[in-house]
Each structure stands twice: as C-alpha cells, then as structure tokens.
Amino acid sequence: MTALAALIRRDIKISLRVGGGALIGVLFFLTVVVLMPFAVGPDLALLTRLGPAILWLGALLASLLTLDRLFTADHEDGSLDLIVMSRTPLELTCAAKALAHWLAAGVPLILATPVLGLLLNLNATATAAVALTLLAGTPALTFTGMIGAALAVTLHRGGLLLAVLVLPLSIPVLIFGVAASQAAITGPLSFGTPFSILCALSLVSLVIGPFAAAASLRHGLD
Amino acid sequence: MRLSGSGVRCVRGGREVFSGLDFAASAGEALAVTGRNGSGKTSLLRLIAGLLTPEGGSIGLEGGEGELTLPEQAHLLGHRDALKPALSVTENLAFWREFLGGEAFDLRECLAAVGLDHAAGLPAAFLSAGQRRRLSIARLLAARRPVWLLDEPTNALDTSGQAMFAALMGDHLARGGLIIAATHAPLGIAARELRIGGAA
Q: Which member of A82, A108, B13, B91 has the lowest number of beta carbons within 10 Å of its beta carbon?
C-alpha cells in the first residue's frame, strides 16, 4: 500500500509542477468552451441547449490531451521497467496511476465547470447537473483512456493513435453523460435512469481498465 | 543463493541474438557480460529482469527470498535513469525507496555514499549526466535487493565516481549480493567474464 500511495503522491506532484498536465488540461478545457459561443453565435437559447454537450466534449478532449503522457513519460525515462519489476501487482499500479491522473487532471475539470457554465448561459441547476455527471463519468474516461495509453506506450507520436483508439470507447460515456444532464435541465426523462447507466459505465471501466492496461503493458514492453 | 540460466535463446525483432547461453553466479559473485555492440548484453539483462521473455531455455534464482520472483529481488540500472526532472534529488530517491519496498535506508546516507548530499534539494533537471548516474546508483542503496543487474554502470562517471561505485559493488558482494554487469570498461572488482558471441 505504501508503494501505491507513493506512486499516487509522485504523479500528482509531477502534474502540479511546472510543465505538468493538470493546468494544461484545465486551460485547454477553458479554451474549447470559450471558443464555442464564438462559433455558434450569440443565441442564448441555443447555447443553453448545447451547453451540456459542449462541456462534456471539452472535458473529453481535455482528459484525452493529458492521458497521452500517462505511461509514455515513465517509459521514456525507464521508470516503467522498474515499475513492472516491482513487488506490487501491475494491475494495482495501473489503477493507482489512473487514480492519480484523475485526481490531478479530472477533478480540476469538474471544479472549472461552474465557471464555464456561466459562459454558456447555464443556470445553477443545469451547471450542477453537468458537474455531477462529469464527476460520475470522468473516471470512466480516464480508466478506458488508460487502455489506449498503455497500447500506444511504445509508439512515437502515440498520442494520435490514442485519440483514435479511445474516442470510440468513450461514446457511451458521452451519450449517457449528456443525456443525464439534459434530463435534469429539460426532462422529460428522469435524471436517474441515464445517470445510473453512467455510473455503471464508470464502475465497469474501473474493473476492466487496470487489467487491460496491465496486459498490454506486459505485452508491449520490449 | 544462485542465479543461473541454461540454454537461453533470445530473439529480437525476428532475428536471433544469441542461443544456447549458459551462465551461473552465486552469492558474493560478480559476472561481467562482454561482447561487441549488438551481441545482446542488454537483452540478457532484460531477460533476467523479466522484461523480455526467452524464446528457449530458462533462467532461475535458487535460494532467494521465498515468495518473491527473480525480478522482484533484482535492481536494474539501465541506460535510462528513471528520474523525474520535476522532482528534487531527495524526492526522486524517496519515491523509489517507498515504491520498491523492502528494508528502508536513510536517504541522506545513501546520497552521501554516492557524493550527492550537497545537491539533495536540487531538481533532478539540473543534474549533469554523471550526477544522474550517481543518483540512480543511490537507488540501489536506498532499497536493498540481492541481485544487481547493471547495464554499462560506469558510463558518464568520472574516475572518482568509478572508484566509489567499485567500492559500493564490493560492499554489496561482501553482504552476499550478486552482480551481473554488461560492460566494456573494467568494473574495478573481481568478476568472472561471460562473453556473448564471438571475439570483440
């Protein structure tokens, strides 16, 4: 357990320091969301209707941006070899890395959502709904994205491959995340139904992600 | 404790690197792996570390700590330093000590042993190549493991650094450790030679 705690502490520390991923992810999220009103135009009703979808897309792209470095950084400097040789099961190590990534890069996105909701003319209820769905859904994005990051670890410019691999996998999360937010804002569906499915998707990926990532890391290390 | 391999065959990228390789080393013994470039020295170390799978033959450790596998009892000092530029010297070392587990040693003493105690608070990004290597060596001291797999360990070290490392390797062997080092330069300790491939 100390090993995993040490790993989580280290990864968070690195991503919070200069050049780390945490700030870059939030800034990217901010940029994507700020650009949308310029593209769509100053139609407030339209922005309100598109708001949850825009926030979700922004969060998806921002988390993808930083996932790229999840394993490549450790692979490039040789840390990954030592991590594989450690006494901690690789599956747990992968889960710890994903958790650290979510804490450092996913949580800031959720915290930024209320501010960005203002830009999209979302009222308090709608913003809270989107933030809640992001809280439930972003772990799924991180843990499925980790599989792609592990597959692309040995490739140069693997970030592009990561996007191609991971985006299709995140479609269900996107559908139910936006559906739950819309349900809370406009109805007629109840919020609980899509939200429960979203939570289920997250739980499934929490289980499958570490095993798949560990398997592809073991296979890909050459 | 005895580390041995018999009939080990290594294939990389569809090409056979070596085959039928036999080797053995007992506690307190050092094995210097030599051979020309591309003869498979690094591959042999990675095979022993469990990072590659042998195409044939077997590698095993007898008489190690009961439940642990060979890679879990081995330190790998590779070409790459496994250091994070954003973290300080102490933070890097503290992380590996906690992550690798086992008996914990005082970080300041480990840094002093490799001559880095004056740079403890410095971010690793500002270290020179030789200092980075010294910090990697400190990792071998901070978390104790009986098998040391060293890949060109004296690269980038100055003369005093090489002498320092030779003394540390001597201590490790005296404590019943075991060293397998791929090297071109003399290690500075008594070591049996294992030659891979033809004459260099």
A: B13
